[in-house]
Design goal:
Elements lengths: L1 H7 L5 H7 L7 H18 L6 H25 L9 H24 L6
Length: 115
């Protein structure tokens, strides 16, 4: 998911993502670029056992930080797909944040994982 959305920050849906940035934030194009790079870096970090817990934690925080853009997009009607309404977006966000949280929790609970 993070690989696909990270790529979408640069091709395909870039204009839509720029329009999702809440109006009070500066440099929407730069914010979309930075968050796209962070999503791609996080997706790469999930591939390795040593970096997966940190990558998942950072991606979860990134999802929380980007949630206002989802709220803005839903309220402004920027996209029209049924899954773009506020409730489905919120539920999807909860699932993704929970999935991100599960990785470090599992890692830190596993015996011998801090070696």
């Amino acid at each position: 998911m993070f690989l696909m959305t990270g790529v979408a920050h640069f091709v395909g849906l870039r204009a839509e993502m720029v329009s999702m940035v809440p109006p009070g934030l500066p440099a929407p194009e730069l914010l979309v670029t930075v968050t796209g790079v962070l999503e791609l870096a996080g997706a790469a970090g999930l591939l390795f056992r040593r970096t997966a817990p940190l990558a998942a934690t950072c991606l979860g925080l990134l999802l929380v930080a980007m949630f206002p853009a989802n709220v803005h997009a839903a309220r402004a009607g920027i996209t029209t797909a049924p899954g773009d309404a506020l409730l489905p977006r919120t539920l999807m966000q909860v699932v993704f944040v929970a999935a991100c949280a599960a990785i470090p929790v599992r890692y830190w609970r596993r015996p011998g994982s801090n070696e």
